[in-house]
């Protein structure tokens, strides 16, 4: 009898669009996922990542990747061993208490994540600031959204995006800058495409140094130079003033500070701006006119503005344009920051940053600190600013922070300047990593590993980019011994509270007399403990929570009277009425769709403030020794460090291996060619990576996807140290206001690598072993100067290892690789030439009347890759190939052409398939696209490939073949 299928409404764990999902499960296993048609963020749509969520939860993947029990590493470099939860938490409490006792509360730090739920975030914030008495709690959202926070607060008075997703349907001009929404926010981009189709008169401006899939939608594309955004915005305002395209009435009634800004932009003439930004004057005039004179202009922006040493200025000067033209507070208009992570907004709401407190309160404000202290029932909240992300790891590297707690993030992959990060992890005396996936690189540095639940197992809430709060629900129970993040933090906090109190340490909140210091504190504690009577709560604890809802109710109370007031919202309302936007005050039926419609802003005088901030050059400008500007960004089908998406070979079909992209002219000028292995070197480090030509990249610019960390791209430096992926190159220089690092630019040089010995190893493996083999191969990657290791395969599980070195490595290393790939069987074919450092190994599988290549290693000379790789990857017939597989430089007896690059992930449609179809059909671009979708199905499921399909339609001549 088949088991019945349950449906659970929840939220996608990827980007800040906050798509609703329906999780299908049978028993304790997630079996499917689809978009929730009733969720207002996505109305049933999902991207390539969202549609494959259930596959990442498959049992064979979980067994190979999940952290399922607490683990303790008794010595650095040793393998961790299992330990019980009580022992693990007791150890953590003892080590943190000892550090606090001996060195003070600022000797510890918490680095958390925009992928935590709001309830998780709240507990960590209270743990650090309310119990321990340190503001050293920061988040990877510092790398993502802190410049947006600073820009909103500086100009509009509060960290509150004023627009909503529906505004794309009302906009007459869409200004997309510093955002490749087609890749980073695909479901929102589907809305933009639909809005453009329904409103052909909508003008789309895209400003970005790279010509991305987003830029392909533009009516006007502005390929500005990296770091020149502030100059562009000042230049547009200069033109608006000159042409009389500003709104004097709105400026007078609703803003202050315009005179200072007008004086600043006086010198930003079109000629000067065009030179700095690398743009045409005519395009500047067109952009200014469309922005200012359209009935409604909406700006969408993301990391291109945020991840910058001038991030706050970029955000604020874009908002200046909206205030100067009155393009705010009405349908289709406003500055709309697109959140990068699923709950970066929720983290900001609970004060989960080193400079914030609950409900958008400022740490520097004594009244705000007193309000939070009263709510928590503690005498005070520390006033000393906490260490932000970059500062925290620098302080650990310097020995100032001695104990680190890292939750739900992978700083050994994602932080800039990995040399400093690794020094921090080495020098810290005690490192706790709270994580769902054992495969994250940061786990390698942990003294204590604590297994956490993840998507499909968690309960709580998240907030998306449009201020919409959604429920996250568990479809299946926690696997193994994994616990919810909030539960781990509460259990630790209660132990730490008891330990500090027993030691007589005067940390905030540990002494009983501080428990109810004021009547207001007593009132708040009683109100927020309503769900669990005080008699049933642990005695004298700041952390009495037994459910995530209890935590959420305390957070809700903290918002009373604030700009994000949600006192009218409850779990019950979210359950019955679905996701809601804030503010939603007590007594109100629904939240507020748009902010500032009445022209009143949350500032002392109710007026928005213009920010007269000058343009500043890049923190690390290009120069003769480092002539390229390197930027990083997202791939369409991957997410962050790929701990989840990297488990699926099918998500590597679109971009299968790491590369650095350069403009073809730069490649030609330097005597390089496509596919060459090159050194990419900054002042902080160097990596090796294959070269790829791309006309989407500007001259003297380079691009490497942000996802390629040491789990997938590695090797060893000249000093023998393991390389650390793309963030070995990036700079920790940051915006002085937001403290967000400049991940979008690093000055680099690019030189050809002379590594004559090469290796390519590929194998199909049992699904229950493939990821474990990949993890083992990862440990071998530093044995080579260059190595990359990725999964591949759609319906089968494959692993690919590519490596290069100056000299042939020890035979034992190659034999170890062969053993991992099941090339140690009796039927394995072998050829070895020790003198030339050549080695060939292959295994063929005969099944009935067909023969297929199942695994191979080419070591020394890999020229035969051109036909042997597709022979395996495309599962082509391999009868009669045995001897040829072992001959260096041998050519295939028949022409074997590798399948072209995958465009559509959902239906596995390649570029060649699309080209062949397009050459057979005539008509308009829309008719040919419709023919593609009807004939090949590409673009008919998630739609993530539609921008690329449109580009191929335009690029492919029609009617060249008979139908």
Automatic annotation (TrEMBL):
Q: Which cofactor does it need?
A: [4Fe-4S] cluster; Mo-bis(molybdopterin guanine dinucleotide)
Cite a GO CC annotation. oxidoreductase complex
Domain (4Fe-4S Mo/W bis-MGD-type) spans: 5-61
Determine the domain of life of the protein's source: Bacteria
For this UniProt record, give its keywords in alphabetical order, as a comma-separated list.
4Fe-4S, Iron, Iron-sulfur, Metal-binding, Molybdenum, Nitrate assimilation, Oxidoreductase
Spell out the coiled coil positions from the record: none
InterPro entries from the xrefs?
Asp_de-COase-like_dom_sf, BFD-like_2Fe2S-bd_dom, BFD-like_2Fe2S-bd_dom_sf, CT_Nitrate-R-NapA-like, MoPterin_dinucl-bd_dom, Mopterin_OxRdtase, Mopterin_OxRdtase_4Fe-4S_dom, Mopterin_OxRdtase_prok_CS
Gene3D superfamilies, per the entry:
2.40.40.20, 3.40.50.740, ADC-like domains, BFD-like [2Fe-2S]-binding domain, Dimethylsulfoxide Reductase, domain 2
Molecular function terms, GO-annotated:
4 iron, 4 sulfur cluster binding; metal ion binding; molybdopterin cofactor binding; oxidoreductase activity
| GO biological process terms held by the UniProt record | cellular respiration; nitrate assimilation
Task: Cite the PANTHER family for this sequence.
Answer: NADPH-FE(3+) OXIDOREDUCTASE SUBUNIT ALPHA, RESPIRATORY NITRATE REDUCTASE
Family designation: Belongs to the prokaryotic molybdopterin-containing oxidoreductase family. NasA/NapA/NarB subfamily.
Entry protein name: Molybdopterin oxidoreductase
Species for this entry: Hydrogenophaga taeniospiralis CCUG 15921
């Amino acid at each position: 009898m088949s088991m019945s299928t349950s449906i659970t409404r929840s939220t996608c764990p990827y980007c800040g669009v906050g798509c609703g999902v329906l999780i299908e499960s049978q028993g304790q296993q997630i079996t499917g996922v689809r978009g929730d048609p009733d969720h207002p963020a996505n109305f049933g749509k999902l991207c390539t990542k969202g549609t494959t969520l259930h596959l990442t939860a498959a049992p064979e993947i979980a067994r190979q990747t999940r952290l399922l029990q607490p683990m303790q590493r008794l010595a650095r470099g040793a393998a961790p061993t299992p330990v019980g939860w009580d022992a693990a938490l007791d150890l953590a409490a003892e080590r943190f208490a000892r550090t606090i006792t001996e060195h003070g509360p600022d000797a510890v730090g918490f680095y958390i994540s925009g992928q935590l739920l709001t309830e998780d975030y709240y507990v960590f914030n209270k743990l650090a600031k309310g119990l321990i008495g340190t503001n050293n709690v920061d988040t990877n959202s510092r790398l993502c959204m802190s410049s947006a926070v600073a820009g909103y607060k500086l100009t509009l008075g509060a960290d509150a995006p004023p627009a909503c997703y529906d505004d794309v349907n009302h906009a007459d001009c869409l200004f997309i800058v510093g955002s490749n929404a087609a890749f980073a926010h695909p479901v929102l981009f589907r809305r933009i495409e639909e809005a453009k189709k329904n409103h052909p008169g909508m003008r789309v401006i895209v400003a970005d140094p790279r010509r991305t899939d987003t830029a392909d939608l533009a009516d006007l594309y502005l390929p500005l130079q990296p770091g020149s955004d502030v100059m562009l915005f000042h230049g547009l305002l200069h033109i608006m003033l000159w042409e009389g395209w500003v709104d004097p009435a709105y400026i007078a009634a609703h803003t202050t500070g315009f005179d200072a800004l007008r004086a600043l932009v006086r010198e930003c003439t079109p000629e000067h701006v065009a030179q700095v930004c690398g743009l045409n004057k005519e395009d500047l005039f067109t952009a200014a006119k469309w922005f200012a004179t359209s009935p409604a202009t909406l700006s969408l922006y993301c990391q291109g503005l945020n991840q910058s040493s001038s991030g706050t200025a970029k955000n604020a000067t874009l908002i200046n344009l909206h205030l100067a033209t009155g393009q705010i507070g009405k349908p289709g208009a406003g500055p709309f920051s697109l959140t990068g992570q699923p709950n970066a907004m929720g983290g900001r709401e609970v004060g989960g940053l080193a400079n914030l407190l609950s409900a958008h309160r400022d740490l520097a404000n004594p009244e705000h600190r007193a309000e939070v202290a009263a709510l928590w029932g503690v005498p005070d909240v520390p006033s000393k600013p906490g260490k932000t992300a970059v500062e925290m790891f620098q302080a650990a590297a310097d020995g100032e922070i001695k104990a680190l707690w890292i939750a739900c993030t992978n700083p050994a992959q994602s932080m800039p300047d990995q040399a400093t990060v690794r020094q921090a992890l080495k020098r810290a005396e005690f490192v706790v990593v709270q994580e769902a996936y054992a495969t994250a690189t940061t786990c390698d540095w942990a003294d204590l590993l604590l297994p956490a639940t993840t998507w499909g197992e968690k309960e709580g809430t998240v907030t998306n980019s449009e201020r919409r709060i959604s429920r996250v629900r568990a479809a299946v129970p926690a696997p193994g011994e994994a616990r919810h993040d909030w539960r781990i933090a509460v259990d630790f906090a209660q132990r730490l509270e008891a330990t500090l109190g027993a030691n007589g340490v005067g940390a905030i909140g540990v002494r009983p007399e501080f428990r109810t210091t004021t009547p207001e504190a007593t009132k708040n504690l009683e109100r927020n403990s309503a769900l669990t009577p005080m008699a049933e709560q642990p005695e004298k604890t700041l952390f009495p929570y037994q459910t995530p809802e209890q935590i959420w109710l305390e957070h809700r109370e903290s918002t009373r009277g604030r700009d994000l007031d949600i006192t009218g919202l409850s779990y019950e309302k979210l359950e019955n009425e679905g996701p809601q936007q804030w503010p939603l005050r007590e007594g109100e039926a629904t939240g507020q769709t748009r902010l500032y419609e009445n022209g009143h802003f949350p500032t002392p005088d109710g007026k928005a403030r213009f920010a007269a901030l000058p343009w500043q050059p890049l923190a690390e400008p290009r120069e003769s020794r480092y002539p390229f500007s390197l930027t990083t960004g997202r791939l369409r089908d991957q997410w962050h460090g790929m701990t989840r998406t990297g488990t699926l070979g099918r998500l590597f079909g679109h971009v299968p291996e790491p590369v650095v992209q350069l403009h073809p002219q730069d490649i030609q000028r330097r005597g390089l060619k496509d596919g060459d292995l090159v050194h990419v070197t900054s002042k902080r480090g160097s990596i090796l990576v294959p070269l790829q030509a791309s006309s989407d990249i500007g001259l003297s610019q380079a691009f490497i996807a942000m996802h390629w960390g040491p789990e997938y791209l590695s090797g060893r430096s000249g000093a023998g140290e393991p390389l650390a992926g793309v963030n070995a190159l990036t700079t920790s220089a940051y915006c002085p206001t937001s403290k967000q690092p400049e991940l979008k630019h690093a000055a680099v040089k690019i030189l050809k690598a002379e590594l004559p010995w090469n290796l390519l190893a590929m194998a199909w493996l049992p699904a229950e072993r493939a990821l474990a083999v990949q993890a083992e191969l990862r440990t071998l990657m530093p044995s080579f100067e260059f190595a990359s290791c990725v999964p591949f395969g759609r319906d089968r599980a494959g692993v690919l290892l590519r490596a290069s070195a100056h000299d042939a490595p020890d035979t034992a290393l190659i034999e170890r690789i062969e053993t991992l790939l099941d090339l140690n069987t009796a039927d394995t074919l072998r050829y070895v030439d020790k003198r030339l450092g050549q080695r060939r190994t292959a295994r063929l599988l005969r099944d009935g009347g067909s023969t297929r290549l199942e695994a191979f290693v080419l070591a020394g000379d890999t020229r035969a890759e051109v036909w042997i790789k597709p022979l395996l990857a495309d599962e082509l017939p391999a009868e009669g190939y045995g001897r040829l597989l072992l001959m260096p430089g041998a050519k295939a007896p028949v022409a074997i052409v590798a399948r072209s690059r995958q465009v559509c992930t959902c239906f596995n449609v390649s570029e060649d398939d699309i080209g062949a179809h397009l050459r057979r059909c005539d008509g308009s671009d829309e008719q040919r696209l419709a023919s593609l979708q009807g004939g090949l199905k590409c673009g008919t499921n998630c739609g993530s490939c539609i921008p690329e399909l449109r580009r191929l339609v335009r690029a492919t001549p029609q009617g060249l073949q008979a139908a």
